[in-house]
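agent> fetching stored inputs for the uracil docking request
agent> found them:
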Amino acid sequence: MSDLSTSADEHTELADLLRWFVEAGADEAIGDEPIDRLAAVPEPEPRVSNGGKPPLPGAKQPIRPQAPQAELADDKAAIDDARALAAAASNLDDLRNAMAGFAGCPLKATAKNLVFADGNPQAKIMLVGEAPGRDEDIQGLPFVGRSGQLLDRMLASIGLSRETVYISNVLPWRPPGNRTPTPAETAMCLPFILRHIELVGPKVLVCIGGVSAKELFGTKTGITRLRGQWKDFDPAAIGGPAGQTMPAIAMLHPAYLLRQPAQKRLAWRDLLSLKDKMAELGL
Ligand code: URA
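agent> prediction call returned; pasting tokens
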């Protein structure tokens, strides 16, 4: 066992280091052993056999692929698996169980909880955010932290609440340290949220923030251009089921509004537009 005794100086240094990590945004440990990411990476083995001899001087080393082939194959298998599991779920309980049993997404290993949904599954309005943050991960519910509290106030301003809307996220597991999810992680969670939307069957879809809007609208356009525009959400266009289109709007993420309060006026416009759409549809 390692000697855990530290001198007063070491204590102060460790406390300073910890404070620095927290200020840099690293607010939790995700592994037991530290990884030295600056350590020299061993040269890859040459792909072309040279009869076991070392490469000839001046011979070209093979180019290292972006992601190992095995990883890409694993990602594809995970996406196929997610699609099959999602398609087989015939109700929300089935879907939650299928997601809880899905081992293909690495985010599951670092998350504390699966964050499935909150609100009223019979609601006509469904909101889809990006991914759980720290508070959501701890409580297992979407939008319960500071940005969730702002979201609740935004909804209340047009007469909505968690009794009248249903809320979920594109990703049900928190990315460590709230980092942006990788394309592979998003791709393997997408079949679940598409099936989730299909099973709830809302009349109006609201994408909260850029990640949700880009994924569900199948575009690379940023949120500042997407927000406030009514579109037809068409899951078939992004690999989901056919025959279930609905009006959808993207809004600025409340976490962004907490950092940029001046943008709340745009969010207010979008909320009023949602209210008008509900009136138009008789909701
Ligand atoms: N941000 C999100 O996009 N979703 C949550 O559930 C919480 C914060």
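agent> quick read of the result: The first helix runs from residue 8 to 23.
agent> awaiting further instructions
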